[in-house]
Amino acid sequence: MKAIQVGLLGIGTVGAGVFQVLQRNQEEIRRRSGTVIEIRAVAARNLERAKSIVMATPAGANIKVTADAREIIRDPEIDIVVELIGGYDTARTLVLEAIAAGKHVVTANKALLAVHGAEIFAAARAQGVIVAFEAAVAGGIPIIKALREGLSANRIQWIAGIINGTTNFILSEMRDKGLDFDVVLKEAQRLGYAEADPTFDIEGIDAAHKATIMAAIAYGIPVQFDKAYTEGITQLAAQDIRYAEQLGYRIKLLGISKRTAHQDASGKPVGGVELRVHPTLIPAKRLIANVEGAMNAVVVNGDAVGTTLYYGKGAGAEPTASAVVADLVDIVRLHAADPQHHVPYLAFQPDALSNLPVLPMSEVVTSYYLRLRVADRAGVLAQVTRILADADISIDALLQREADEVGGAVSGAEDAPAVPQTDLIILTHEAREGTMNEVLAKLQALPTVLAPIVRIRKEELT
Predict the structure, then answer these.
(1) φ/ψ (deg, to 5) at 260
(2) Which of 23, 149, 437, 439 is most buried as measured by Cβ atoms within 10 A of its Cβ?
(3) Bind-site residues
């Protein structure tokens, strides 16, 4: 078989990793794929940097470096285009042009697929080409292949993943050092774990892109990023991490999808898929609760296999390159196969995708951690528990701790004594989110509740 020719769009951190892994492990890759995989051309905005990477290898003299990505797409000798430029618009245009030109595509772009995946997969099916995207979720962890192929005998029940290394590093540091979010974020930026603009990471958007893709593969539904509930870690306080520890839990930012069936507030059956990203209490004894630093982990529960855990580096040049090159090998193996017999992009045959709806957050059923800063006086706890009981929300555990800070003076008088305060920390059993929202509004309205109530969702992951 003749050598397979690859064009790289982008040679930044991941692109350079792909280039180096292909050069270093070329013989091993040839033995696995049955042919040689060669980089024929590289497109980059910074030509000087690109040339320095390419020319540092023996094969560099034979590789074209260009600022024009479309030159690679037009090249009839190139079989596979690897998109590593990121972002939404330019990447979408170039990927669709590559597909229209009959090229297979490998991408690490989770944002692109979460938002435009339906359009891209439809175009690829029409052209009979492959779009591979293992590197788009959890870096070097082969979670896409596990969901799409390894677990294909299973009805997937739920997925929960630490799929953003930046936020996991921040939460690990907050727990270990007792520091607040803002302090640890600055340290993460100094160490290079967080971007100068970390919004996508700390607001949960990056994790929601990845959770959207995994949910589509797990349940055979279209990618629907616009329906994902997203909540980041910016409002987490060190004291909540500490209180969670005292209750036997750790807080992680999880991407969660879950097949569900229950009754709504009116008693009507509700079935669908939960798709949500938010800080979550997890029992400290769970393996995923002990994933620290910038590492990633995904737990998948299937009806036949039970619960499985996938752990590893979720970012970085060579871990992500590992997934990109694995996709190249897969494409080479399937290069001459009938397109009708390729592994479906979203695991299920395109005419068998489900219309199972993504549920609004108000219909999600889960458990909760609540922290209420209240006046330290008789009857306050009874008020709080009565409101919960009236909504049929039962309490699983309760702590009462002296408040870390003293509140303001009563009645606004400058010489009035400070109001004695205490923190009530409550773990609830399962409740519908919409019901909990109503309860929190009633609790917040109590004159004895002195600060905004903290609510963090809790998952047992059993």
Answers:
(1) -140, 155
(2) 439
(3) 9-16, 110, 195
